[in-house]
Automatic annotation (TrEMBL):
Residues involved in substrate binding: 15, 37, 64-73, 127, 189, 198, 218-219
Organism: Marinicrinis sediminis
UniProt name for this protein: Orotidine 5'-phosphate decarboxylase
HAMAP family documented for this protein: OMPdecase_type1_B (MF_01200_B)
Protein family: Belongs to the OMP decarboxylase family. Type 1 subfamily.
Protein EC: 4.1.1.23
Oligomer status and interactors: Homodimer.
Record key words, sorted: Decarboxylase, Lyase, Pyrimidine biosynthesis
Pathway info: Pyrimidine metabolism; UMP biosynthesis via de novo pathway; UMP from orotate: step 2/2
Record-annotated Orotidine 5'-phosphate decarboxylase domain positions: 9-234
One annotated GO molecular function: orotidine-5'-phosphate decarboxylase activity
Catalytic activity, reaction form: orotidine 5'-phosphate + H(+) = UMP + CO2
Amino acid sequence: MEDWTQAERIMVALDYPNKQQAERLLQQLEGIPCYMKVGMELFYAEGPSFVAELKKQGYRVFLDLKMHDIPNTVKGGAASITRMGVDMFNVHAAGGSAMMEAAMEGVAQASAGSNERPTVIAVTQLTSTSQHMLNGEIGIAGTVQDTVVRYAKLASQAGLQGVVASPVEVAAIKEACSASFVTVTPGIRPAGAAIGDQSRVMTPKEARAAGTDYMVIGRPITAAEHPRQAIEQIVKELSE
Ligand SMILES: O=c1ccn([C@@H]2O[C@H](COP(=O)(O)O)[C@@H](O)[C@H]2O)c(=O)[nH]1
């Protein structure tokens, strides 16, 4: 495999209980220019030092902790995350405008005097949420797409640079916010892959055609017998 350009839009979800398992995957994916996503499982086990290790190895890092708390607490959390030197992190749009604005204040405070600032994005509706769950169980009326677009607009107005959503909603988000508003999309499943707990899914090719900026891919790579071959296959399809 020679041309890894398309790997730059892939964020590999390092959902592991410890750094030894994550490091094993990093060895297998050596030289591939993908983003690495660190979520709750790995971060709560290994903390900032593992993030520092990824940065030292030259990876772009998305810290996926989905903050959702009162504005003052999120401001402090955002400042601490900014000091870690990650490239991207997220908060829940459901926390509202004041909370998202507080996150941006935390970033500004912690990065004062520096040119480097993380991209801050908001989670809209989790990609595991179906239309039935949203209306019947959670009790929010309307379509999933309506609520996703509403949250995206709120995030954009609060000064955030993008959102996490399903690739299914990307076109509507770009239309409502702007073409440059960043879309980070989990719910990516290559043809024939197990869907698992995801609800709103697309294949990598479909997601690219829909205009997604970054595809978050976990188990289709990490649970594959040969992770390097799995990502290689995805990149090949995206390069066609
Ligand atoms: O709405 C969301 C927000 C975050 N995620 C995260 O993305 C990955 C997806 O992993 P897969 O194994 O490819 O399903 C995982 O880390 C989630 O925490 C999401 O799926 N949906």
